[in-house]
Amino acid sequence: MELRNIGRVYCEAGVFIMRIKMILLAIAYVAVSVVLLAIAYQPQSPGAMQKTDRLAGSTFLVERFAG
């Protein structure tokens, strides 16, 4: 009689441990996904796209080569 109960306790403990492992795995998956998405979708600053520090509407070329 007691051996059956011991087996049931071990089985329930195994299910509990497996459930905790699956929950931790799901949390780790979500955390890694969030980090990868944050890296992939970093906003690009407007300054990073320009090759010079001049504004796009600058009249530098007109003034420089006006004569």
From TrEMBL:
<keyword id="KW-0812">Transmembrane</keyword>
<protein>
    <submittedName>
        <fullName>Uncharacterized protein</fullName>
    </submittedName>
</protein>
<feature type="transmembrane region" description="Helical">
    <location>
        <begin position="20"/>
        <end position="41"/>
    </location>
</feature>
<keyword id="KW-1133">Transmembrane helix</keyword>
<keyword id="KW-0472">Membrane</keyword>
